[in-house]
Amino acid sequence: AQAGADFLAVPSVFTVPTGKAHWHVLLRARAIENGCFVFAPAQWGEYAGGRLSYGHSAIVDPWGEILADGGEEPGIITARIEPEQIAKARRMVPSLQHDRPFTAPELVRLPLPRSSRSHRLDEGERY
Q1: Is residue 51 part of a domain?
Q2: Would you say residue 28 lies in a domain?
Q3: Three-class DSSP category at 91
């Protein structure tokens, strides 16, 4: 969204327990924090060894409302998209204006303090 995206694609496959606990919450959070629509195709089905994937492909609006959910069956989902919602959501929740790097560049480049005296480790000595 910082680069101008109004739509995010978030393809994924979650196991059933993880999907039930996290899938919709994470999609809604991405839509809200970026002020954009999220399109989230998700794999569904049973795999070797009995592993099940959650499914629930979804379309989420910029306010975090789930517009469509594919459930636990193969299929196609659709939703009516209103692009003016993007600008409205970004005005109401201006999170992109407050975005910053996780680590400030000056912290990454901060020089180590110099000791008043040097110490060389001799063989076998530990610090």
Answers
A1: yes
A2: yes
A3: helix
pLDDT score of 127: 46
Task: Report the b/e string of 92-118 with b at 16+ CB within 10 A.
Answer: ebeeeeeeeeeeeeeeeeeeeeeeeee
Which residues, including other chains, have CB under 8 Å from residue 13's CB and lie 6 or more apart? 42, 43, 53, 54
Q: Which residues contact 75 (CB under 8 A, 6 or more apart)?
A: none
Residue at 121 is within a domain: no
Q: How many helices (H) and strands (E) does the chain have?
A: 4, 6
Tokens for 83, please give them: 């692009």
- Give the pLDDT of residue 3: 74
Local confidence band at 57 (pLDDT 50, 70, 90 cut-offs): very high
Q: What whole-number distance in Å separates Cα of residue 55 and Cα of residue 118?
A: 60
Predicted local confidence at residue 17, as pLDDT: 94
How many CB atoms sit inside 10 A of residue 76's CB? 8
Q: Provide mean pLDDT across the span 37-46.
A: 95
Q: Residue 85 and residue 36: Cα distance in Å, rounded?
A: 8
What's the confidence (pLDDT) of residue 32?
A: 94
